[in-house]
Amino acid sequence: MKIGDYSLRRQPKPRSRWADPHRPEYYPAWTVRLQLPARPRRDVSSKVPICELCLAVPQKMNPAKERPRCRCQGPARKWADERLRAEGRLWREGRVDALRGLGERSTSPSIGALFDAYEGGMPARMQAGARRNMAALAAIVEQTTGKAARPQSVDVLTKRLALDWMQIRQAARDLPGRTDRELRAMLAAGDLQALQTDVPLAGNATINSMLTKARAVVGRKARTYYLGDLGDRLPPLTGFLQLSRLPAKVGHQALPEETAAALVALGERWKKSEPEKWLAFAMMAGMGLRPSEALAARGHWLEEIDGQPVLVVKNRPEDGFWLKARAKARARRYAVPPAMQALVRGREGFLVAPGLSKTGRSNLVYRTMSGEIRKVVGDDVKDTNYLLRKAAGSAEYTEKGKEAAAARLGHASSDTTERHYADYDAVLPCLVG
Ligand SMILES: [Zn+2]
């Protein structure tokens, strides 16, 4: 009886290691992808060389399918048949743990290879974020294992690792001055206080955000968009990816006061010398618009209500504009403050920088402004433009509560507001005077 299945695969090297970025390079031996019932599939190297002709098959195609009768594949299939038979025997006997000791090691990539692929697969504008995510992942591995992250296999990313790391981080808060090495030794000796997963503690928000960054490197989005072929070779890492977040205090984690003040000052500077930047800034930080909404807003979105100009943000099929939740989203209305009125009066096209090209307007918000805000708020903030929106939402939340904040931000559910926006009590007064 045959148990399980396998396929032959040609394994590309990480894109960052190709001599020519347009010419794929592959590992020289056939990889065998093994699948036993109810077991994660695994890739193992057969050590059987792939011939030049099979290597030359175009990248999107699988030479095992394109040239099934090629002579180089016979020995690889023979190897795979034997391997599958041996594994099937162990599987039938219920000795799945023994599979690990069988022959070659699993070919899970190293964390270093993963980093290279992740960073290499990112568009340039996202690489700063990628580096922050990788730094978080490396820190978690290094602080918990005491060894450099890059040479280790991604298999080290287990639920256990994440739990140990969280426990060490919580302990570090209570035992200031201890080194990571000391904390690890205490953990190993059973001398650390148990991980507290039920109470919001200071520091939990940081622990959560570090984990979120680290998971971004191996999560579904990374596998789909950034890791290229390496994404297929990653084990599921379910335990590491699905571990619950620690409860964190919400509603009162302010931006440092000097940071908030510096942001206000930046807004004021723009207001005087670069009014188009200020306009976009005020629409996001004052009204709470998404960056895309601020960029899309047009003159005819302004209505006179009770003698006051009001910006109405809603689905605008005639402009090719749809709100994020599209069907569910309701129109939102924003009073236009006097300083803004002076700027936008009479504009018929786009409200923000109507004189610039599409690319120019997008660069203004997503690159230039974003870069200048980044200098003020530092590298820890994930998305600078969303920080502005977050500030507007949080100010509303503090003043009028969750429902009001959800309405301002245009969230279909106020739970979203709670999850994403309530942890900043970043009140930026008089941004939009
Ligand atoms: Zn061949």
Q: Which key terms come to mind for this protein?
A:
6 strands; 433 residues; 3 domains; 3-stranded antiparallel beta sheet; mainly alpha; binds zinc ion; hpI Integrase, Chain A
| Number of beta strands | 6
CATH topology of the largest domain: hpI Integrase, Chain A
List each distinct ligand once: zinc ion
Percentage beta strand? 5-15%
Based on CA inertia axes, which overall geometry fits?
Answer: globular
What do we call the CATH homologous superfamily of the largest domain? Intergrase catalytic core
Q: Give the low-confidence spans.
A: none
The overall pLDDT average reads 85
CATH class of the largest domain: Mainly Alpha
Total count of domains: 3
Rg, nearest Å: 27 Å
Give a quick account of the main beta sheet: strands, pairing sense, barrel closure. 3 strands, antiparallel
Succession of helices and strands: EEEHHHHHHHHHHHHHHEEEHHHHH
Structure notes:
The protein is mainly α and 433 residues long. The protein folds into 3 domains: 5-101, no CATH class; 111-242, no CATH class; 257-421, Intergrase catalytic core (hpI Integrase, Chain A, Orthogonal Bundle), CATH 1.10.443. It has helices spanning 52-55, 63-66, 73-92, 111-120, 127-145, 159-174, 180-188, 204-218, 220-226, 230-233, 238-242, 257-273, 275-287, 291-296, 338-344, 358-377, 384-400, 402-409, 414-421, and strands spanning 5-9, 29-35, 42-49, 302-305, 308-313, 332-335. The strands form 2 sheets. A 3-stranded antiparallel sheet has the order 1-2-3, with helices on one face. Strands 4-5-6 form a 3-stranded antiparallel sheet. Helix 5 packs across helix 8 (204-218), helix 6 crosses helix 7 (180-188) and helix 13 (275-287) packs across helix 17 (384-400). The longest helix has 20 residues, at 73-92. The termini are far apart. The mean pLDDT is 85. The structure holds zinc ion. Zinc ion is lined by residues 51, 53-54, 67, 70, 72-73.
